[in-house]
Amino acid sequence: MTQYSDSRRKFLKTTSTAAAASAALPYWFTASRSAAQDYKSANERPIFGCIGTGDRWGNRKDGKFGGVGEQVLKYTDIAAVCDVDASHVEQAKQNVRQRRSKGDDRPVETHEDYRRILDRDDIDAVTIVTVDHWHVKIAIEALKAGKDVYCEKPLTLTIDEGRQVIKALEQYGGTFQVGTQQRTEMGQRFLKAIAMVRDGRVGDVRKVTCVIDGSPVSKSIPVAEVPQGLNWDMWLGQCPKVPYRLGEGGENKYYTRTNCHLGFRWWYEYGGGKFTDWGAHHVDIAQWLIDQNGPDQGPTKITPLVVEHPCEMDEYGNPKCDDRFNAASKFTIRADFPNGVEMYIESQGRNGIMIEGTKGRMFVNRGTVAGKPVEDLAKNPLPDDAIEKVYGGKVPKSHMLNFLNCIKSGETPISDVYTHHRAMTTCHLAAISARLNRPLEWDAKNEAVIGDEVANAMQAREQRKGYEIKV
């Protein structure tokens, strides 16, 4: 492995002429014909370590392989896989070996502890597809170790974690892509919607509604024996030490009745419910659309209009029950922005984004772009370069390929840490206001809740000893 990696690095170091030429292109540039061919040469293929190899990585419950791991294997080589669940990591190893070229018998190392991957000099980049509360700690330590990072959304568990990862990126450098694929894929529907807004097709935007669904509810979930091969203490990480829980039911693979795999998102201890699940996608696109995802930008006020939780919250916004899903199941949250736009984050209705302006309205989700402004395109189409202007250049073929091209060029990927932090700040504030059930005034420049000590304290969480995040 060392000899293979050294020869590849030598090749990359001798391509300065090509790198200089590519630097003149937009950072997201992807040649439509030759993009996939760029990584066919063994010397050009970065070596990856994959941290977290569950459902989203590719080890799906239906037995099919698909997800981040599949994307990595299209363009790179995977030298090692890591997971705190032995069943996940063994299946990941088999998936990698089965998809390599015939005769490629290089080892695929398996690890339980992600630090073993970060220690390896032969690994250039990592994917982080763990539970949400592990993202930032691993990402910061990966940057320290000189690795480029592809991390699934939502990047952060708290607002403070966003500041920490930005500080680490600026201190240690590296290429960092967040896995919000709506920015590049999904048939470019979201890009088309943004391009239409930029072209004035709905007039001045006044209201944007993001329907992100509500978190599922559950009955009491019993304490259960920790499955063999699962390091439960390490899975919990920075979160409080609690018993493992598992109950019957939950046919939807994402609604498994547990506080572990495929159920963790519905507990505020490990995530933000739908606020940070679908919110990480739709709020991100909405803030991009209204030009509110840059430095010092964001909402001025967050107001909970409707909130329902599966269990009661105490005065500090903490769930009073510990045996069931506790994230908000029903909500309407209004976010007021300084440019006069009202954003509504809602649980009920058709999943997607409704955009309302002075000249009309349109709706966009992963399946459609609809509304009269869209119908009018038949007679008055967008300029040929309208979607490219959203980016400032050619739209990439895939999220992963954009990441790899940016590793080569040193440019910033499409889903960067900075804009993601601004979108996630709105999502986290929505969750905080819902948990406290009161309005919050937000100072975006100083990143502070005005006049509410409890809400301000909720920008961070206490971290269990031994699992603290340090930049």
From TrEMBL:
Residues 75-179 form the Gfo/Idh/MocA-like oxidoreductase N-terminal domain. Residues 220-468 form the Gfo/Idh/MocA-like oxidoreductase bacterial type C-terminal domain. It comes from the Bacteria. InterPro entries: Gfo/Idh/MocA-like_OxRdtase_N (IPR000683), Gfo/Idh/MocA_oxidrdct_glycsds (IPR050463), Gfo/Idh/MocA_OxRdtase_bact_C (IPR043906), NAD(P)-bd_dom_sf (IPR036291), TAT_signal (IPR006311), TAT_signal_bac_arc (IPR019546). GO terms for molecular function: inositol 2-dehydrogenase (NAD+) activity; nucleotide binding. Its EC number is 1.1.1.18. Keywords: Oxidoreductase. It is an enzyme of class 1 (oxidoreductase). This is Inositol 2-dehydrogenase. It comes from Stratiformator vulcanicus. The gene is iolG_10.
